[in-house]
């Protein structure tokens, strides 16, 4: 029963990926305009894994094979409910997105590189998929100490060879999946980024602005995370503390004071009119 449930869930995921596969190209354009206009700086941000999908540009499927690629987006999704082999559990996720400068197509605004991304569990445990992927990408193994301190954000802008494989869903549609990465072949170079580099980190000061640049489907995913909820709670606490400080200083009236006083300063407590 668990097998058939997993197949059904994978099929549903494939349908969702197909529905949103145009969003990657839209996101690239929005991010580039935003970053150019606001001079975004991705420095001094980090995404470190604590010890413990498919997005084809413009609705066209990324060709299968080995491609020259460069990472241009790293998005910390956060801790969300994930289903694996029929079991649901909370998992911390990060999304890594690449552009393929040697593979281009017209997505409505002239020739642009294909882009493709993959979600990973944010864990650098020795058996984790992310650690295996990063080690293959860098071409070297890591000790547990190195892996636990590794900053995922340092991969932003890094080049490599990306292995892309096609799979066919039960609907007959073809999807492209990232299966692995490796260093560039000796003597080979990767063109500079066409899209602007973008990092979404919960600790960044302009997180809210960056969040608004994400496509709706990815906003929904990020906003369902524990980290996003915690961020809203902290913001609410800060607002309440600021309000209390203003009320104590007398600069603003408390809610109770506003209730018992009208705009002209006369009390509106109806108990004064009672005949006893």
What does this protein look like?
There is one protein chain. The chain is an alpha+beta fold and 276 residues long. It has two domains: 2-224, no CATH class; 234-269, no CATH class. It has eight helices and six strands, in the order ααβββααβββαααα. Strands 1, 2, 3, 4, 5 and 6 form a six-stranded mixed sheet that branches. Strand 2 and strand 3 (111-121) form a beta hairpin. The longest helix is centred in the last third of the chain and has 24 residues, at 226-249. Mean pLDDT is 80; it is low at 1-16, 50-57 and 267-276.
List the helices and strands and how they pair.
Layout: H1 2-20, H2 23-38, E1 65-84, E2 87-106, E3 111-121, H3 129-138, H4 144-149, E4 159-168, E5 174-182, E6 198-200, H5 207-212, H6 216-223, H7 226-249, H8 255-260
Parts with pLDDT < 50 across at least 5 consecutive residues: 1-16, 50-57, 267-276
Please give the domain count.
2
Q: How many helical elements?
A: 8
Spatial extent as radius of gyration: 24 Å
| Biggest beta sheet summary | 6 strands, mixed
Summarize model confidence as the mean pLDDT.
80
How far is the first residue's CA from the last residue's CA?
73 Å
Number of strands: 6
Percent of sequence in beta strands: 25-35%
Q: Helices and strands: which structural class? A: alpha+beta
Instruction: Please give the oligomerization state of what you see.
Output: single chain
